[in-house]
Write a structure and sequence with these properties.
436 residues, alpha/beta, 29 strands
Length: 436
């Protein structure tokens, strides 16, 4: 264990200097969700690929409906239907003077037509008043012939989505570094891309230690508590963008812990343990991993450290196994483990993803307290709080103790008191890390 007291920034810098983005792979669109693009995506097919109607109605020439009204409608001859998915009218059919074609939303604009009038602007071919909807072709095939009365004029291009009005061939669709979410998958599919080159979502194995831990739903006996850390940190890893695997609590036995971690390495890009890193006689993470390392591979193994922070003073970091999988060993107290995750594990996960924006957003806020907050000299303190964006203020919730899970559940921010601050008076402006 290192005798040096590390700062928060030094510990984080060491982690980020070690973690490297995962190698790119090509994935099918559904599998790429949540991943980060490695290459720019350039449009090859115009979107939309042809001029098409944005309404159910009639494709017309502008001159034929100029001055049309309900009292004096323009009467046009309907020459056919154009349905979505069809090629349009027959090759020899053109919307000529005094003519119109029934057209459905998404259908290609037929030759000769300059605009689309919604069916509600017409009588729908019934010879009666304004239509509420177009009659289904299967119910009234005669609607594709006969006459239609148009009650309003329209300008050229009205209710027409022009070819390439969204994107054109050669346009940049998505930049490298973009996270592939639902809208991005929709765009990729719309321009005809079935696969994309991305960095995969990191696989994170979360493992808690302690013979006192019992899984939720089981019966507690003397001296036992429920394992909350592994659930919270697994959820936090997924929130950060990872694929997370939770391992049930491991008892305080060094050999069992070492074997469990080694078994998990096959599905891990990063391992996170919680508990067993302090100075107790049963702190088995230190015992199990302090001597781990490959003599032929300098730099492997886990270094256990003391950090100038509260909560979260004891930390461990290094690599393990043949692939030098990064391992972060976090304290066991619930608040300590969660704060440590936000400060160190979340940035590591996002670095593995290939993102450049690694950290939660921060802001400055005024302390909303009745009396001064105290902080230990030489340590950076992280207090839980609720942030009021409108007031630009932050209010502490709970105390500084690292076991107060209920207060953590109410918090949406971390209040940061620097190392050189021992007292923060009401109204003091301080840094706030936003957790939402």
């Amino acid at each position: 264990m290192s005798s040096t007291i590390w700062s928060v920034d030094e510990h984080l810098d060491d982690i980020l200097a070690t973690v490297r983005p995962l190698e790119p792979i090509e994935l099918q669109l559904p599998d790429a969700q949540g991943c980060v693009l490695v290459k720019d995506v350039v449009v090859e097919v115009a979107l939309p690929p042809f001029d098409n109607s944005s309404m159910d109605g009639y494709a017309v020439r502008v001159a034929d409906i100029e001055g049309a009204s309900e009292e004096f409608p323009a009467v046009l001859t309907v020459i056919g239907d154009v349905a979505a998915g069809s090629a349009g009218l027959a090759d020899d059919q053109v919307v000529g003077p005094g003519q119109a074609a029934r057209i459905m939303t998404g259908a290609p604009l037929p030759a000769g037509a300059e605009a689309v009038v919604p069916v509600e602007w017409t009588d729908g071919g019934t010879g009666e008043g304004p239509a509420a909807a177009m009659r289904a072709h299967s119910d009234a095939p005669e609607g594709a012939a006969g006459e239609v009365r148009v009650h309003r004029p329209a300008e050229a291009g009205a209710h027409v989505r022009l070819r390439g009005s969204d994107v054109k061939p050669g346009d940049l669709a998505l930049r490298a570094g973009s996270v592939v979410g639902p809208p991005q998958i929709g765009l990729l599919a719309a321009i005809g891309r079935s696969t994309v080159v991305v960095r995969p979502r990191p696989r994170v194995v979360v493992l808690s230690t302690g013979s006192e831990l019992v899984q939720p739903g089981e019966q507690l006996t003397g001296g036992q508590i429920y394992d909350s850390n592994s659930f919270a940190l697994t959820a936090a890893a997924r929130d950060a963008g990872a694929i997370a695997y939770r391992v049930g609590a491991v008892t305080d036995d060094a050999e069992t812990l070492r074997a469990t971690i080694e078994d998990q390495l096959i599905r891990a890009d990063i391992v996170v343990t919680t508990g067993g890193v302090s100075v107790g006689a049963y702190d088995v993470v230190k015992e199990a991993l302090s001597s781990v390392g490959d003599e032929d591979e300098p730099g492997s193994g886990i270094d256990f450290r003391k950090l100038a922070m509260q909560p979260g003073k004891p930390q461990g970091f290094g690599s393990i196994g043949p692939d030098h999988t990064p391992l972060l060993a976090l304290p066991g107290n619930p608040v300590s483990s969660y704060v440590s995750f936000e400060l160190f594990v979340r940035p590591a996960i996002r670095a593995l993803m290939g993102l450049t924006d690694l950290h939660r957003p921060t802001t400055r806020a005024v302390l909303n307290v009745d009396k001064a907050l105290t902080s230990p000299a030489g340590r950076r303190q992280f207090l839980r709080g609720t942030y009021d964006e409108e007031a630009g203020a932050v209010t502490p919730v709970g105390g500084s103790s690292s076991h107060l899970i209920a207060a953590l559940a109410q918090a949406d921010a971390l209040i940061v008191l620097p190392e050189d601050t021992t007292s923060a008076e009401p109204g003091t402006e301080t840094d706030v890390i936003l957790l939402r």
